[in-house]
Amino acid sequence: MWRRVIYHPEVNYALRQTLVLCLPVLLFWLLDDLATGFLLSLVPACCSIGGLDTPHKHFFKRLAIGGGLFVISSVLLQFLLLWSVPLPICMLILTLLFGVTAEISPLYGRLMPAALVTAIFTLSMAGNLPVWRVAMLFAIGTVWYGLFIHLWFRLWQEQPMRESLSLLFRQLACYFEEKYSLLTQHTDPEKALPPLLLRQQKVMDIISLIYQQIYMIPNLKHPRHRRLIQSFQVALDLQEHITVSLHQPAEVQKLVEQSQAEAVIRHNAKIISQRLQVLADNILYHRRSTPFNMDSELSALAKIARQHPDNPVGTFCYYHFSRIAHLLSRQKPLYNRTLMPMQSRLPFLQALKSYCSLKSAAFKNAARLGFTLAAGAGIGLTLNLPKPYWILMTIMVVSQNGYNATRIRIQHRSLGTVIGILAGAAILHLYYSQNLMLILMLVLTFCSYLIVRKNYGIAVIGFTITALYTLQIISNSGMNYLLPRLIDTVIGCMLAFASSLWLWPQWQSALLRKNAHNALETYQQHLRQIFNMGTDVAELAYTRMRVNQAHNTLFTALNQAMQEPGFNTRYLADMRLWVTHSQFLVEHLNAITTIARDQYVLVPTLAQEYLNACEVLIQICQQRLEYDGPSGDTSILPIVESGDDKDELSEISMEKHIERILAHLTTMHTISSLAWQQRPHHGMWLKRRLREEG
Question: How far, CA to CA in Å, does 258 sit from each of 63, 252, 304?
């Protein structure tokens, strides 16, 4: 029972965050200096935003860099204010100065918002405390945070990666069960496919996260780490077999009508899904796995495949289900693979050179945030607020990458703040003793962190009440901050929303064409690997994952684009159909990858003909996406004659998959021509060539 409590992801995270915040408060409460304890508890928030709670092979190096940036940000802001530099100019300078971190790498890029939050906290203390004392608070707070996190992850070994692996197995279980529960609905892709696409997106997002976590592990050869990496490789094999295409509606319907295949397939899928859930719990709660086999279930599926040899669906399901069962029983990968390389970080001087360009995405993000913060500071000064730190803090908290993410965060933040202020006003009227208020703050802090990752809006209620308690304890003026805080939150949310609309907006709908082009490029590279007779197994696995990730990037962009305002819905509807066929194509690529890995190869002449046909179609799809002009490529599809020798089922499966890939590519080219005509006709859409969008 204790394992389920202490290793539970939300409980473990809430306990960690609560302890790192409250232990300094407890210490200084015992020293009769509660105000300093509350000020010191602000630093862990900066460290969390900066990603300093992420286990890393260079953990202490990143901690030193982060702490140095916090001290520089604090000291620089105070000196700029002493030199009578207007606060809006100060915020713009700091944002542009720290924005270069995003050019180095995404992980280092998280230090910029953390340094800006440090500056905002410093603004609230400037004039009340000496410059050196404020800087020392951030330095000491960072050291405390780093030591606590290091000790925490020494006690809870590999907890972040275990949580991600467990979540991956759960998502694979849900995806697999949902896919085969919709078995008879494959005749209507509009209903059956969207939920599967969402499941596939979540799976690929978690896989990308685990790749990042693996390359931050300091010692990959340690037995504990090797076991986790082996489990990850098993999950990659499972993902390959789960995401294969079964889009054969006529054959599925025929087999269902002729036999009890539907019940048998769904029963097998349920058994596999339940086992995946068990493995997810075993990984998360440090439990040994129990023996597993599903020979009796597979025998029923094999019987159906034998009774209906002319129908490929039974054999298809038996092949992939038996491979999945083999993986679940042995819990070892089917083959050794080389994991995808991690994106390296740029050297500082090279990143600085790249950053000093109007085309730099990091510079645009920093400029957008800087101008927004400057506007917030300017509005605060106009309203005679000498320290409009809560407007600036609201801007930092709700500003996200993308319009839809910012809009959702604004809704949660504003509603949570309003409810929290109303609840806090009622509670403050009760006038509890200080000790009781501290206990209530501890409980609220733990409960808020317990739900913050799943329901941010409700967590904001607890954080708002805690902030009011803090002000009440420090200055006995919590009631005086109710209305100003509400007004500041509204102003900050409005400014963040306006900046996402008008200051270099990252419209995903404008990037759909580029993402589609990149996806086609990865499909072509993977097909070349498949038809290469001497292809290395590890290289084939690497290109397959790139295919899945490229499609996931495209699908994510489409989901975000559907939420953006002011764009032609007909264009997005056409692109949604394009992405649907892209998903079918990826599933076929997953399927033929498993066939190619089983040492099956086509006749060299036939393989070359198939490859040529696929490359021709991919290239004309890319040209249709790239050029704005009349389509003169009503291409003559190369006619590929299948071989007469079809004794082996693998040859039939390989050829059928390739023929469907060719059919999907043809449809995607037609959709590309129609979608481009429906595009919006304003702004960056007037550019005629795809490469001009970069």
Answer: 65, 10, 10
Q: What is the pLDDT of residue 142?
A: 94
Please report how many Cα atoms fall inside a 13 Å half-sphere around the Cα of residue 627, on the Cβ side: 12
- Per-position DSSP letters for 539-571, written without gaps between them: HHHHHHHHHHHHHHHHHHHHHHHTT-SSS-HHH
SS3 506: coil
Note the pLDDT of residue 36.
Answer: 87
- Long-range contact list for 538-542, CB < 8 A, 24+ apart? 538/336, 538/337, 538/338, 539/338, 540/593, 540/596, 540/597, 541/236, 541/335, 541/337, 541/338, 541/593, 542/337, 542/338, 542/340
C-alpha–C-alpha distance, residues 246 and 658, integer Å: 14
The CA–CA distances, whole Å, from 542 to 133, 138, 236, 530, 592 equal 52, 43, 11, 12, 15
Could you count the other beta carbons within 10 Å of the beta carbon of residue 536? 12
DSSP 8-class letter at 110: T
Residue 171: HSE in the Cβ half-sphere, 13 Å Cα cutoff? 23
pLDDT value, residue 147: 93
The HSE-up count of residue 375 (CA atoms within 13 Å, CB side) is: 19
Asked if 513 and 692 count as a contact pair (C-beta separation under 8 A), the reply is no
510 DSSP 8-state letter: G
The token pair at 594 is: 């498993």
How far apart (Å, rounded) are the C-alpha atoms in residues 25 and 147? 17
| Residues 477 and 484 sit within 8 Å (Cβ to Cβ) | no
Question: Residue 639: exposed, middle, or buried by beta-carbon count in 10 A (0-12, 13-18, 19+)?
Answer: exposed
> CB count, 10 Å around CB of 508?
22
Q: Block means of pLDDT (10 residues each) for the chain, length 694 residues?
A: 79 92 90 87 90 84 92 93 92 93 86 93 86 92 93 84 93 89 63 76 89 79 82 91 76 77 88 94 88 88 86 84 91 78 74 85 90 93 83 90 84 89 80 80 91 90 86 68 83 90 75 86 90 73 88 87 73 82 88 77 78 88 70 49 45 73 87 69 53 48
pLDDT for 258: 78
Q: Say if residues 234 and 581 touch (Cβ distance below 8 Å).
A: no
Predicted model pTM: 0.86
Per DSSP, 65 falls in state H
